[in-house]
Amino acid sequence: MAISTRAHSRKNNVFVFRTFLSTVFPNVLSSRPSSTAPVRVAKPKVLDVAGGKGDLAWLLSNVRGEGELNDVAVFVIDPQQTNHSHLEKSVAYLVENKEEAALRSTPGTPHHQPLASLLPRLPPCPPFRSPAHIRMHLTDSVVRALVERNEEAFMATFEEELSRPQPSNNRIKQSPEISRTVTSSSIAYKALSSPSLIVGFHPDSATEPAVDFALALRIPFAVVVCCVFPSLFKSRLHRGRPVKTYEQFLAYLLAKDPRMRWEELAFANASEETKRTVIYMTEEDFLETEREGG
C-alpha cells in the first residue's frame, strides 16, 4: 500500500497561515472580542492581497472562532477570478464520508488534511460564505490613491482593470452571486479605504505595496513574503545595495519600521527553499513607542 503524502501537501500551508492569523489577530477574526477591546460598531474588514483563487479568504469567512460564525467581511484583491468550488467539494466529500474524515482529521499522521480538522467549526451545511472579490492589482499607484484619498484616481484604475477580459484559463463558470465580484468602483473604494486587517499569502509583486499600504494607514497586517522579482524592481536598495535575494528582501521590508515583527511558519513540507517567513504588525505594535532600528 502506498504511503499517503497528504499531510505534506503544499496545499496545507494556507491552513498554517490561517491558524497564525487567528492567534495573532483574535480581536479581528474572532467573534468574541477581548475584554480590553472597544465595543464594535462596524463589521471588521479583512483585505486579502493577491489572494488568487481565494482559499485563505474562504477560510477566514467560514471557520468559526470560539463563538458563533465570525462577523467579518473579507475582500480578495486580485485580477484572477476567485473560485471556491474545490474547497466546498472537499467539505461535501468529508461530510458524506465520516470515517475518512475522522482518519484525515488526526494531526501528525500521513493522512492528515487540515480541512477535515476544521469540519466542526464550519457551517453545518451550504451555502457557505463567499468572500467579495475586487478584480484588480494592488500596485504602488493604487496604494498612493488610497493613502491620498484620491477617489477619482482609484476609480479610473478600477474601471480600467475591471474592463480587461479574463484570460481563458481564469474564466470560472459561476454566477455573480457565487463569485461576489465587486463591480461598483465606489464600493471597492470604500472597502479598500478602511480595512481592519491586511493579509497576504505569497502575494508576489504586491508584497511591498501591501506592506506600504498598511504602514501608511497604520493598519494591522501579516504578509508571508515570497518572490523578490529583482529585474522588475531594480530601484530597491538596502544599505546601498540592490535587493536581489530573499534575505535581502526581508531585511529591506523589515527596515521600513523597526517595530515590525517576523516569524517562521511551521509548514510540514518546509525545505531550505520554502518561503515561510511572515512579517507582521498588530494594533498594539502601532501604538508602541518606536523602537530603535537595528
Provide structural commentary.
The protein is α/β, with parallel strands linked by helices. Helices cover 36% and strands 12% of the residues. It is built from 13 helices and nine strands. The chain has helices at 13-24, 26-29, 55-62, 85-96, 98-104, 114-117, 140-147, 151-163, 176-179, 185-193, 207-217, 246-254, 283-287; strands spanning 45-49, 73-77, 132-134, 197-201, 221-224, 237-238, 241-242, 261-264, 277-281. The strands form two sheets. Strands 3-2-1-4-5-9-8 form a seven-stranded mixed beta sheet, sandwiched between helices. It has a two-stranded antiparallel sheet with strand order 6-7. Strand 4 (197-201), helix 11 (207-217) and strand 5 form a beta-alpha-beta unit. Helix 1 (13-24) packs across helix 3 (55-62) and helix 7 packs antiparallel against helix 8 (151-163). The longest helix has 13 residues, at 151-163. It is globular and about 55 Å long. Residues 174-178 have low confidence and may be disordered.
Q: How would you summarize what this structure contains?
A:
It is built from 13 helices and nine strands.
Distance between the termini: 53 Å
Mean of all residue-level pLDDT scores: 86
Strands across the major sheet, in which order?
3-2-1-4-5-9-8
Number of DSSP helical runs: 13
Residue share in helix? 25-40%
The quaternary state of the protein chains shown equals single chain
Primary descriptors:
9 strands, 294 residues, seven-stranded mixed β-sheet, 36% helix, 13 helices, 12% strand, alpha/beta, two-stranded antiparallel ribbon
